[in-house]
Amino acid sequence: MDIDNIIELLFSIAPAAIVGAVAYYFFKQHVENENSRRRFLLQKDLQKESFPLRLQAYERISLFLERIAPSKLLTRVQPTSSNKTDYESLLIATIEQELEHNLSQQIYVSDQCWSITLAAKNATIQLIRKAAMQESTDTANKLREVVLTELIDKPAPSKAALAYIKEEVSDIW
């Protein structure tokens, strides 16, 4: 076999190799596009199913924040005795119980939203504890009065969290 035969063989194989490489490239691109399309359709279907669950989670967290708002909490949870410590414990236990009923909602909302919700809960508990520690607070009814008076000057902690939730929900529309 001489050099001319080798060159002739290369020239006859070259077009087949080029066609094979181009076919491989286009086939690879087609497979990648199909995978992307399938992934997109799957994600679209999952979003269609999860969107109502996410909205429901925001609704439940909003309801939680409304229920722990001191003005509503104090009117809903009546003192069982005139002891301020018992009433303080009852209010805090009610808030904690409300949170326990809504713990699963954190998987449907953003981490920041959940953190703000927990911060509102903690700030509400802190408000109640701070009011109970005042020397002028000696009965359960006085505790209610002090907490409500405190809220005249500033908004309830849950109000800021509710505003954040409304903003976050409007962003997902």
In a nutshell, what does this entry contain?
The chain has helices spanning 3-68, 70-76, 84-101, 111-133, 140-153, 157-172. With 173 residues, the chain is mostly helical.
The number of E-state strands comes to: 0
What radius of gyration results from the CA coordinates? Answer: 32 Å
Shape: rod-shaped
What multimeric state do the chains show? single chain
Mean pLDDT: 91
Work out the helix count: 6
Query: What share of the residues does DSSP label as strand, in percent?
Result: under 5%
State the end-to-end distance: 74 Å
Helix content: over 70%
Which series of helices and strands comes N to C?
HHHHHH
List low-confidence stretches: none
Which secondary-structure class do the elements indicate? mainly alpha
User: What about the largest sheet?
Assistant: none
Task: Report what the structure shows.
This protein is mainly alpha-helical. It is built from six helices and no strands. The longest helix has 66 residues, at 3-68. It is rod-shaped.
